[in-house]
Amino acid sequence: MSGTILFGIDVECANENTAGFVKYAQSLFHELETPVTWFLTGQTLERYPDLFRSLKDDPLIDLQSHTYSHMLLKTVLMRVPEGKTIHGSTNWHLQRSGSVAEIDADLGRCQQLFQDVLGGPATALTGPWGYYRGLGDRPDLLEVVQRHGFRALRTFARNEEDAQPVPLDWQPFFYTVQGYPDLLECLVQDYQDDFYWEAFADPQPGDRYVDYLKSTADTVAAKNLVWSMASHDHHCATREGFERKGTWFRGLIDYAKGLGIQFMTISQYYEARKNILG
């Protein structure tokens, strides 16, 4: 096989969008026989415990953590490209993180929910918004996430301007330099979702996100890369709403499999990388 895709979806709305997403996305990923990781906020799990409890033994859906309250682990200072408006900002956009103590409490609360609802803590964590360098420059936070039982992270999701895309050449790595050789950073490469592609890439009339994704898959296959890609449960309350995403989910997955690209959950990928290390 040529290349790997880690398809991770942030399930964070904690409302009817989440319920619709679960209903339609579970069916789609089973239809496509494709493993996927859903990163749940604790508030979402708390809102729909029975719904996610029914999924905990699903062989294709890996349920992992997105913090309890969608609290940022690091402050984001994003440079907005000239002539664009992103998150209401036209120059720089600041999004503050929690303090170390607040993050510690938030992750602990989320892990307790995973234990109570799903029978065990999460082992993978996506950092809300994502950050340049992931947690590589914050060994104090690496200590916190390791202590809470996380081993696979998806926190490196922005480029040097705290913007996007994140280059595919930046591949998953262990935080060995920082003293945490069992913590694997899986990044979020390229754009975090269709709405960020629209915001940063300035597509022209007629351009389609699915075509852009297919061209990215060509690169992944040709260079045998790992592509940790992302989406969200936003605007999925109805089938029509979900299909705006489901259409490109289906198109990209079918195309990538045709190139010989394999799909893995973040848990499967972590185990594979750990086994290579011995």
Helix run count: 9
CATH topology: TIM Barrel
Which structural class matches the secondary elements? Answer: alpha/beta
**CATH C-level category:** Alpha Beta
Provide the residue-averaged pLDDT.
97
Given the C-alpha coordinates, what overall shape results? globular
Largest sheet: 5 strands, parallel
Query: How many domains make up the coordinates?
Result: 1
User: End-to-end distance, in Å?
Assistant: 22 Å
The CATH homologous superfamily is named Glycoside hydrolase/deacetylase
**CA-atom Rg in angstroms:** 18 Å
CATH architecture classification name: Alpha-Beta Barrel
β-strand percent reads: 15-25%
The string of secondary-structure elements, in order, is EHEHHEEEHEHEEEHHEHEH
The total beta strand count reads 11
Question: Could you estimate the helical fraction of the residues in percent?
Answer: 25-40%
